[in-house]
Amino acid sequence: MPDPLLAVQGLRKSFSGRTVLKGVDFSVAAGELVAFLGANGSGKSTTLRCVMGITAPDSGSISIDGAPLETLQGRDLQQARQRMAMIFQKIHLVPRRTALDNVCAGALARIPTVRSLSPLLFPADVQQEALDCLDRVGLADRAFDRVGRLSGGQQQRVAVARALCQRADVVLADEPVSALDPHAAEQVMALLRELAHSEGLAVAAVLHQPDLALRYADRSIGLLQGSMTFDLPSTEVTADHLDTLYAPDRDVSDTTVSGSAVSDRTQAA
User: Fold this and answer.
1) Biased-composition ranges for Polar residues (predicted)?
2) How far is residue 230 from each of residues 219, 224, 254, measured CA to CA in Å?
3) Concatenated DSSP letters for the chain?
4) Which of 68, 76, 126, 183 could form a disulfide with 72 if both were Cys (CB 3.0 to 4.6 A apart)?
5) What is the dihedral of CA 148, 153, 154, 156, to 10 degrees?
């Protein structure tokens, strides 16, 4: 495996005395799509929010391309964080603006403030880059359509294009397909895998659909009550692994599972 582009060690987080993350360790290499699986409240979304800096972890180390973020300050820290982009379940776009305008917003951090006050003022090179990003997600022909007129799957692809226009090396996707119909969900997952494999992005996605993780992710990580139960190639994840995550009466310490093949029930989970 190549050196990880994103490396996380000992990530811990508590809210109001309740421990949500209990020392999570993982890494994502360039060109890799990693899926996080687990029941509601297992700590999946909190993990990504801590990595992104939306939520401050209580302890732990987060490194981008070998540089621990906790050792960086000022402009260096800002530049390191700009290498990460996040895609949410609730698609954060401006519905009345065009797809192109929304994608151009990914470049706001690197253009003069006065040029960011209106989409009409975005530099020509930024607009061309945004068009290229829309082309990469298959939406160049919808560049001048208002986002509110696009389908949910198309809107999520616009959000991915915005992350590309940010020039992010690491893409964190928090339940990116939970609000989409099955066909659109398949399209978005295929897009994330293609961007990881073809463009060398490090992609980490929280998913509630184990079948999508097994089909599209290179690795799958299981979280149970804030602890990791497995970190495996997705082809090696079994029905027993998933039962460990989703059986409500399973003890967190019971992480020993058999190597049986994935059952039909798992594929339908």
Assistant:
1) 254-269
2) 10, 10, 11
3) -PPEEEEEEEEEEEETTEEEEEEEEEEEETTEEEEEE--TTSSHHHHHHHHHTSS--SEEEEEETTEEGGG--HHHHHHHHHTEEEE-SS----TTSBHHHHHHGGGGGGS-GGGGSSGGGS-HHHHHHHHHHHHHTT-GGGTTSBGGGS-HHHHHHHHHHHHHHTT-SEEEEESTTTTS-HHHHHHHHHHHHHHHHHH--EEEEE-S-HHHHHHH-SEEEEEETTEEEEEEEGGG--HHHHHHHH-TT--TT------PPPPHHHHT-
4) 76
5) 80
The model's pLDDT over 95-154, given as tens digits with 9 standing for 90+, comes to 999 999 999 988 888 776 545 556 677 888 989 999 999 999 999 999 999 999 999 999
Structure tokens, 208: 């509630």
**What is the Cα–Cα distance from 176 to 135, expressed in whole angstroms?**
20
Do residues 179 and 173 lie in contact, with contact meaning Cβ atoms separated by under 8 Å? Answer: no
In whole angstroms, give the CA distance from residue 49 to residue 96: 27
Q: How far is residue 30's CA from residue 263's CA, in Å, rounded to a whole number?
A: 31
Asked if 144 contacts 98 with a C-beta cutoff of 8 angstroms, the reply is: yes
Secondary structure of 65-85 in HEC code, one letter for each residue: CCEEHHHCCHHHHHHHHHCEE
